[in-house]
From TrEMBL:
Keywords, sorted A to Z: Cytoplasm, GTP-binding, Magnesium, Metal-binding, Molybdenum cofactor biosynthesis, Nucleotide-binding, Nucleotidyltransferase, Transferase
Protein name as annotated: Probable molybdenum cofactor guanylyltransferase
Enzymatic reactions: Mo-molybdopterin + GTP + H(+) = Mo-molybdopterin guanine dinucleotide + diphosphate
BP GO terms, sorted: Mo-molybdopterin cofactor biosynthetic process
GO cellular component, one term: cytoplasm
Positions that bind GTP: 10-12, 71, 103
EC numbers, comma separated: 2.7.7.77
Gene3D superfamilies, per the entry: Spore Coat Polysaccharide Biosynthesis Protein SpsA, Chain A (3.90.550.10)
Cross-referenced HAMAP family: MobA
Organism: Novipirellula artificiosorum
Compartmental location: Cytoplasm
Domain MobA-like NTP transferase: 7-165
Principal subcellular localisation of the protein: cytoplasm
Entry GO MF terms: GTP binding; metal ion binding; molybdenum cofactor guanylyltransferase activity
């Protein structure tokens, strides 16, 4: 089990397109999306925290037993949560954060192991999933080294806060995954598509 990386599941944001909290949606496994996302992350990281927007939710999440790391400023996007998570990892003398979103129900621990394997070879670099069809960077399925703490804070405090653009200015390792593994569930229609077909 990897103790050099802090596992982070991103649950912040407004879930406005879904109209309900995506963390609480029911996954085909019978778990909630959050329990499923924490479970796959626990297979690769010894410590897993939840990164959320609401400061009032500080504490421990009862459904998973994970500590909640509230964003210092709510609703400023995932980079805010990732910068705070990298701070915690640095405080704990860990080498980085392994980040995944709560809304990719088809992502598995096996996919995460692929990124971890690459990071073992390139621990100084960002290791980021890309989807093979469009060669598109997936910044929310990525390992961020703690050495990038200051840069992540600068980005979090900037006007545009796009991890997607920023990663392309950094040395990074791309780990290609199938498009389906990184499919976001953002709307009720997306959710229908994740349910087993009868
Ligand atoms: N910690 C943290 N996570 C976030 C924040 N915004 C989004 N996320 C997470 O990032 C992932 C992708 O989120 P999006 O689909 O872009 O945004 P969303 O707020 O969940 O949904 P919409 O309101 O429909 O855009 C999900 O796992 C969210 O929980 C934020 O401000 N802070």
């Amino acid at each position: 089990m990897n103790s050099r990386l802090l596992g982070i599941v991103l649950v912040g944001g407004r879930s406005s397109r879904m109209g309900t909290d995506k963390a609480k949606l029911l996954h085909p496994s019978g778990m909630t999306f959050l329990q499923h996302a924490v479970g796959r992350m626990r297979e690769v990281c010894g410590q897993v925290c939840i990164s959320g927007s609401a400061a009032e939710s500080e504490g421990t999440d009862a459904s998973t037993g994970c500590s909640i790391l509230p964003d210092p400023v709510a609703y400023r996007g995932p980079v805010t949560g990732i910068a705070a998570a990298v701070d915690l990892a640095a405080q704990q003398q860990q080498e980085g954060c392994f980040v995944t979103p709560v809304d990719m129900p088809d992502l598995t621990a096996e996919h995460l192991r692929g990124l971890l394997h690459r990071w073992d070879q390139f621990p100084e670099m960002i290791v980021c999933a890309t989807t093979e069809n469009h060669n598109s960077i997936q910044p929310l399925v990525a390992i961020y080294p703690t050495r990038l703490q200051n840069e992540l804070h600068q980005l979090a405090h900037s006007d545009q806060r796009s991890l997607f653009r920023w990663i392309r200015t950094q040395p990074y390792q791309a780990v290609p995954l199938q498009q389906t593994a990184c499919k976001n569930v953002n709307t009720p229609t997306d959710l229908e598509d994740t349910l087993p077909k009868r």
